[in-house]
Amino acid sequence: MKVKVISRSTDEFTRERSQDLQRVFRNFDPNLRSQEKAVEYVRALNAAKLDKIFARPFIGAMDGHIDAVSCMAKNPSHLKGIFSGSMDGDIRLWDLASRRTVCQFPGHQGAVRGLTVSTDGRVLVSCGTDSTVRLWNVPVSSIMESNDSSNNSAKPLAVYVWKHAFWAVDHQWDGDLFATAGAQVDIWDHNRSQPVNSFEWGKDTAISVRFNPGEPNILATSASDRSITIFDLRLASPARKIIMRTKTNSIAWNPMEPMNFTAANEDCNCYSYDSRKLDEARCVHKDHVSAVMDIDYSPTGREFVTGSYDRTVRIFQYNGGHSREVYHTKRMQRVFCVKFSCDASYVISGSDDTNLRLWKAKASEQLGVLLPRERKKHEYLEAVKNRYKHLPEVKRIVRHRHLPRAIYKAASLRRIMSEAERKKEERRRAHSAPGSIPKEALRKRRIIEEVE
Amino acid sequence: MADVEKGLSSRRRSTIARGRRGGRRRKNLNSIPYLVFTFSDFQLFFEHAFDFQSTYCLGISEEEDMNVMKYLRGEAANLEVLQDKKLKGQLALREDLYGKSAKAAAKAEKWLMPSEGGYLEAEGIERTWNIKQETIAREVDLLGSRNQYDIILPDLGPYTLDFTPSGRYMTVAGRKGHMAIVDMKNMNLIKEFQVRETVRDVVFLHNEMFFAAAQKKYTYIYDRNGTELHCLKEHGAALKLQFLNKHFLLASINKFGQLHYQDVTTGEMVGNFRTGLGRSNVMQVNPFNSVVAVGHSGGTISMWKPTSSAPLVKMLCHHGPVTALAFHSNGHLMATAGMDRKIKLWDLRKFEVLQTLPGHTKTMNFSQKGLLATATGSFVQILRDFSGSQNYSRYMSHSIAKGYQIQKLAFRPYEDVLGIGHSMGWSSILIPGSGEPNFDSWVANPFETSKQRKEREVHSLLDKLPPETIMLNPTKIGSVKPTRKKEKPAKQEIEAELEGAVEAAKKASFKKKTKGRSKPSKVAKKKKEAVYKAKKPFLEQEAKGEGLSKKKRKNIEEENQLPRSLQRFARKRQAN
């Protein structure tokens, strides 16, 4: 006869000293855990509710400007510094951690319209309606220490006067050139008082410009003739252009997929394009109810933030048709500029009410250092929530966002209008000869033509 | 629109696929420690592998595959049929993750489990069921043999008993009012007290701090110091109690055959149903789906959930009263015993008898590893499924002293021990291979400290399941209900509805009005109008869906067209 029974000595299964951690034994047998799905579902529901409870995205406002904030620039080599320029010509450097002005630059005579920082983070370039481009030395030490001597004003390194007002400026990701947009697109060098190159395609003003993060010589601009143009600095003339039905206010390249860019359009939508294939948009991001003024990609390339004339800031997935998140406060007015922070965890918006506002990119994220166990717990809850997100209760809680009445009404009105338009089109198609009215996707419908 | 439908259907498919598998695979993946080999280990391993490659390699991989299947919880979703590329990509990624985590879990099971299960093997002409407990006690180690004892308390019996899910604590109750809590690890008596009235059943609540006792008139909740916390008068004179661990529901069946569900966290009475099948003291909760089964004197077994007043299942299992009932922890197997001297094993997926064994038992219990204990008088028999095909046969037997009447059998979780409550006290015997050798600290920990207990209490309260989650197939949660075509109501139903509407219209009273507007004739007219209004939608419906088919209608028209003298031939011609 051979026999054995289970016998556990207490010593083997408990800790030796009271300072030790308790010993943990795992057995993943599904039979030990009954009703797993019900338990997970309840956890998902609770996680969704907790997320709602902890959703406090607004961190704080940074006031100091005395006119609307028109543009911002983040410093690629300092995480917590951000530059902002206002309509009265004031340029400030902010410390995001303490939410104070670190340095105030004398600025321009008229409105500042564009700000950008060189790749090494040492030179700030600004341009404005006073037809000047100014280069500033970035006070590195004051960012590092963020001391209280906020009247740390500096003299410009250089002032270049040119013949037209400027609307935007952007620096090359890798190199010494920067581009300005105005009556024409000019390419500048740091040390030359005149542009090294100028481009023109049509007579209209370019209003935004962005360099490609992957290929340093490619840039995209949008102009007030409703066009989006792609330039190659190595060519003598612009490369490609599309004309849309409405004006594009701003452009942002996806830093992780640098062939793709997203355009913030006047018609309340954002359009993601593949720059190699401009005849249709890859994705249309709908949700704003007024013109989208600015757009910026997260460094992860998976989402982007938009600021709109409807007084809200929204965060979209790079491939999502609707926004993941909407931020608004009672005091925030028209949003003119938005930026994702360089660590992808904060969003900064500048608006008409002269304030910069700092938001969390994930509304219910826990700030501060997380213990490994806490992090694991968050990951688990996130996964469970993701798994049961299609169930009605979870979906309802996760999707719900409170909106100001004006925006809610405007959204429902837009919905009614677009529905009516769709129905009308459908009926027209039904009553005409088959094939005479082709069906056109929204991705193509807003594009008038593509020019090469 | 087509796009939306496509998306829906594919999502449905995916959720069905998800439905087949539950689990916190993600968590598993995170928490599995990696295996660390030194170089010499590897060398050794490879040498062995080369030596026995031809004989063992296949066997090992097959065994691993089996384990992986266990952790996969069903087949993978069929992604080929999906139209939505985005969804397909996401699901493919997820399937990949599931596969990886199942493999990791199987590996962990193979290499990292701290203890092995018990066993009893006969040699030569020995038979396992002839081996006496004394022989086993002589062979096993001291710690094991300590679990074999008899407590003789002749005055206050017969005793019933219950274990906590971790198997650490036991509560016993004598019929005549003696109650005790025992710590089974060091055999300490934590508390013992006398209530001086009949105690019919006793059950632990969510942890060892509280237990409920069904006493003469009412059910009471006590804490572990023996303090009476609550008197649950609504349950009446309960005969049997069960606690649904995950839902925090205390279920009881009383003298009048009423089934009560009470939420012990809020005190709310969740369900109160009349079984309508008479007095019964056979009740058992199915651990797989928390459905409560009650055995009745007519030989039926009814299964209940707290959210419906009608039983989910009513099945005739025996000729004559049902005496005992037990569920296997995998949820597919139920054992019933009746006064007709039969023990039947049922497949709960098909509600079919798998096996009928002769025998009579007053109490039954399944162990964690699937051993079935039955008892008659003072004789205990353990059945075991040797082949793995749910074919139970004799494994062990044991007789306690003659004349003792066994009242209750309960396997101690995570131990090879069977607790027996009988008329003269309680005993405990060793049944090798009955318990799960490896516990999971996060599920049920026999070595739990008080701090861990408090922590677990909070967590289990946060994860408390609502009563709606109790259903026959708990894996349905999270899946999408397939859309069913709306069935046309039967003619009788329509007629009944019409009649109801007409009755309601007739009964409606009118406001008393002045100036002759409430004259009987006017009232009659109004009533007539109301009845017509009520009838109208039904009549319209009927006119629309005219029961006649096209062909029939055509025939009738034809008939009408013929001269009257010829009409009688028309049908005949058709018949030919």
Shape of chain A: globular
Averaged pLDDT of chain A:
92
Low-confidence stretches of chain A: none
Q: Largest chain-chain contact?
A: A-B, 46 and 82 residues
Overall spatial form of chain B: globular
Nearest-angstrom radius of gyration of chain A? 26 Å
Widest beta sheet: strand line-up of chain A: 15-16-17-18-30
**Into which percentage range does the β-strand content of chain B fall?**
25-35%
Q: What's the number of extended β-strand segments of chain B? A: 29
**Straight-line N-to-C gap of chain A:** 90 Å
Structural class of chain A: alpha+beta
Q: Strand percentage of chain A, roughly?
A: 35-45%
Keywords (chain B): Nucleus, Repeat, rRNA processing, WD repeat
Biased composition (Basic residues) (chain B): 9-22, 508-528
Protein name (chain B): Transducin/WD40 repeat-like superfamily protein
Biased composition (Basic and acidic residues) (chain B): 529-549
Describe this structure in words.
The complex is a heterodimer of chains A (452) and B (576). In chain A, helix 2 (36-53) crosses helix 4 and helix 2 runs parallel beside helix 5. Helix content of chain A is 18%, strand content 36%. The mean pLDDT of chain A is 92. Chain A contains 7 helices and 30 strands. Chain A has a 5-stranded antiparallel β-sheet. In chain A, strands 2-29-28-27 form a 4-stranded antiparallel β-sheet, with no helix packed on it. Chain B has 576 residues and is of the alpha+beta class. Among the domains of chain B are: 39-72 and 88-112; 492-575, no CATH class. Chain B has 12 helices and 29 strands. In chain B, the strands form 7 sheets. Chain B has a 4-stranded antiparallel β-sheet with strand order 2-29-28-27. In chain B, strands 3-4-5-6 form a 4-stranded antiparallel β-sheet, with no helix packed on it. In chain B, a hairpin with a 3-residue loop joins strand 12 (249-254) and strand 13 (258-263). In chain B, helix 2 crosses helix 5 and helix 9 packs antiparallel against helix 10 (520-544). The longest helix of chain B is centred in the N-terminal third of the chain and has 28 residues, at 85-112. Chain B is globular, with a radius of gyration of 32 Å. In chain B, 34% of the residues are buried. The model of chain B is unreliable at 1-58 (pLDDT under 50). Strand 1 (2-4) of chain A pairs antiparallel with strand 1 (119-121) of chain B. Chain A: It comes from Forsythia ovata. Chain A: One of its GO terms (cellular component) is ribonucleoprotein complex. Chain A: Belongs to the WD repeat DCAF13/WDSOF1 family. Chain A: It is found in: Nucleus, Nucleolus. Chain A: Residues 361-447 form the Sof1-like protein domain.
